[in-house]
Amino acid sequence: MKYPLPHTGTFAALLLFCGSVQAETLQTGKDVEAPTAKWDGVALGFEPPSPGLLGDMLGIRPILEESGFHYNLGYLSQLSYNAGGGYDQDKQASYIDQFSLTFSQDLQALTGIPDAALEGNIVNRNHDNNLTRDRLQDPRANPTDLSQESYGGQSITRLGWLTFSRSFLDRRLQWRIGMMNKVQDFDQIIPCDFQTLALCGGKSANSLTWYNWNVHYWGTTLQYKLTDGLTFKTGVMEQNPNATSRGHAWSTTTQGSKGFLLPMELELKTNAVNQLPGVYNIGVLFTNARQQDLYEGVSGGAGATDPNGYRSHNRTWFLYSGFNQQVTRHRGDASRGLSLFYSLGLADQRTNYMHYSTSTGIRYHGLFDARPDDWLGLGVSMVKLSDHYRDNQRYLNQINQATDYQDPNYRPVPGHSVTAELFYRFNVTPWLQLQPGLQYWHHPAGVSETQDAWVTALKTVVTF
């Protein structure tokens, strides 16, 4: 059983936003023109770049930028401590960290191809310390959340993406091709600033058929601006379960691919609500890669005892949607204020053990005048487990004659899980952020027999 891969993290969400703006600036040689410039996502969690710890790198950064090479280098750590409750109540502090390099190279001056760019991402992750796995949840159940969203299961350096992109039709159409990742194009309306996975970004990664941030797979995508604020996105990518393996970290092959992914998304950026910025999306992801049913067998009964094994499906789907809307200004400052977010993921429960997942919450940028750059966040998420998954667990208990939860052969029958998180992020300097947080876990992994848990957390972000 594999953990769902983590979302991008606070720093990564920042890089993606800044990178898209940088790329557009590079392509035109000037600042982004209205009406795009009128849409300002700062109060939604998409902050502009700030000076890094190393400044201009003794003059190296300005020279590189003059040559069209832009980069962001950052460090992220996440610490979680089980303050009470959970499956295993022995105390443990779990720590993980990562270094990430995201870069783009303008190719127009070098090749003459208009609006052409190379984009790349390299991530080094460290430590196999997972508080959710080790303390919070019953190890016999599949996870529904992670206390440390950037947990990747291993210490490893990986290529996240390396792609070529350019635009057409007066920059209304953007094309990308190469070893890519979904976060370059899809489901990027909610930043990943919370430390729990279910509150980190959108829900499309819960499809369990494509992966976030530091995992690459071959594909090509198109984005077309139907209007100045409405964009249609689509593409074709390989569906490769081996993409998360250590052997695939720098692989350029498609070995292990089972089929293809076809995503389609509509994204709307608007100032329609009280002239405040908001972003909305709805998307669907299809795959023709064969997926195993969680309960049914080939003959129509339970797959666990079917001589021909579990049934498989040659097409499955995943629907996702959400919004992120600023609702107040702070003392007339549009970059400060309260924003609301909501996200939803709905899966084919025949093959995905998380039938649906949803989250909602608030962010407040600059709540205190003495600290205008700090952030406050509060969110709640819920995951409802698949009926097929539950039926299979019940049937395994039946054939194993396991009725006692304490029996090692017993398979927990999960229902739903709820996770809540409160954080306050101190922008100590332009290059250092400290984010203490408090998490509450209700029915970890959806298992009602597991005691609710309290977790204290600390996220640290350094921009170089």
From TrEMBL:
Domain of life: Bacteria
Gene Ontology BP terms: carbohydrate transport
Gene3D superfamilies the record matches: Carbohydrate-selective porin OprB (2.40.160.180)
Entry-linked InterPro entries: Carb-sel_porin_OprB, OprB_Porin, OprB_sf
Key words, A-Z: Signal
Region of interest (Disordered), residue spans: 128-149
GO MF annotations in UniProt: porin activity
GO cellular component: membrane
Signal peptide region: 1-23
Record field: compositional bias (Basic and acidic residues): 128-138
Family: Belongs to the OprB family.
Protein's recorded name: Carbohydrate porin
Species the sequence originates in: Serratia inhibens
Lineage, opening ranks: Bacteria, Pseudomonadati, Pseudomonadota, Gammaproteobacteria, Enterobacterales
